[in-house]
Amino acid sequence: MKKARFHDAARLEFLDSVSYYETVQPGLGERFRLSILAAVKLACAMPFAGSPYKYGTRRVFPKKFPFSVVYFAGDDEIIIFAISHFKRKPGYWRSRQADNPLVMPSIDDPTV
């Protein structure tokens, strides 16, 4: 199983969303947190099971929440670029890949 590494901005998105859901209803933030962590665990266990997405990334979907976990499957780890709400502009997290030059997609990548 690969390890997960969160981009700093993705970690903030995650924590902000947990806090938001907790203010909506006590306990909902914890359910959101567990749902995201289960999706991350799936991505770590089976990195290529996630749906191919933009710019050489993949994504998995937590249960019961309108979010996706956008990640890149590296050799030793997965790098999580976003905990993305379905209503956000697709690819808003793209600049985060520049922080990790080893995960830039090749010119031949059809998802670019």
Write the layout of secondary structure elements.
Layout: E1 3-6, H1 8-24, H2 28-45, E2 51-52, E3 58-60, E4 67-73, E5 77-85
Helix pairs in contact: 1-2
Report on the structure:
The structure is a single chain. The chain has 112 residues and is α+β, with helices and mostly antiparallel strands. It has one domain (3-103): RelE-like (YaeB-like fold, 2-Layer Sandwich), CATH 3.30.2310.20. 31% of the residues lie in helices and 22% in strands. It has two helices and five strands. The chain has helices spanning 8-24, 28-45; strands spanning 3-6, 51-52, 58-60, 67-73, 77-85. A five-stranded mixed beta sheet has the order 1-5-4-3-2. β2 and β3 (58-60) form a beta hairpin. The radius of gyration is 14 Å and the shape is globular. Residues 104-112 have low confidence and may be disordered.
Relevant terms:
single chain; 112 residues; alpha+beta; YaeB-like fold; 5-stranded mixed beta sheet; 5 strands; 31% helix; globular; disordered C terminus
Average per-residue pLDDT, rounded, comes to 86
Task: Name the helicity range.
Answer: 25-40%
Secondary-structure arrangement, i.e. CATH architecture: 2-Layer Sandwich
Spans of at least 5 consecutive residues whose pLDDT stays below 50 are 104-112
What's the CATH C level? Alpha Beta
SS-derived structural category: alpha+beta
User: Tally of extended strands?
Assistant: 5
Order the strands across the largest sheet as they lie in space.
1-5-4-3-2
Per CATH, the superfamily is RelE-like
